[in-house]
Amino acid sequence: MILVKLGGSVITDKSQYRRFDRETAGRLASEIAAAGERMVLVHGAGSFGHILAKEHRLHLGITEDAQLRGAAEVMADVRELDLEMCRCLVHAGLPVVPLPPAACAVMRDGALERLELTTFLRYLDLGMVPMSFGDVVWDEVRGLSICSGDQLMMALAKELRPSRAIFVTDVDGVLTADPASDPGARLIERVDRGTLAALPRTQRNVDVTGSIYAKIQYMIDMAEVAGECLVLNGKVPGRLEAALRGRKVVSSRVVS
Question: What is the domain count for the chain?
Fold first, then answer.
């Protein structure tokens, strides 16, 4: 079983509110279908979630009633993105089933406390492709908080023990610097805990779910329960499909 996260940076333009990259999303859906593997999918919220979530400070919890309207707007937007992604996958021939975290997860002070994994397993055993996504979720301490795609990936990996966990981004993998500001940024082919201290702690655009440093920490933890953990560039045609088939591709291999 393979666990795949389609990052918000690859299926949306994170700098423009609600901008879906239909061409890239459709191609990735076709590559996933062509691989013919048993898998669970997660996708990021990208510009459908991060921009408004930051504006309404949802990552800090609910401190005033006015935030509730903002939370509802974000929830509506990320469901629209999920619907667009579902349509791409169905068009590619995949029996995908969307599972919103707001209906099957509980947060506690910003951390994912519980995820109803039985629902994922039932659909998986039926032969469908469960897909979840970054969402606004009930929080026992904060009222509401953001459940990120990385948190979902970690919870799913612990339960499902995938043979491979693949993070699909808009760059070749984990880099020595932000390529948007440093043209000399180089790919780090093997990432472990020893490389974290040297990683840049900057980020592009708007992200309310943590820096690249925090994301890599999730990946390293996942590598303890997954057979292999890869970070690759979904903007390059064929790369995701090749990785799903077990072929060696340009990527970062994350190890515990």
Answer: 1
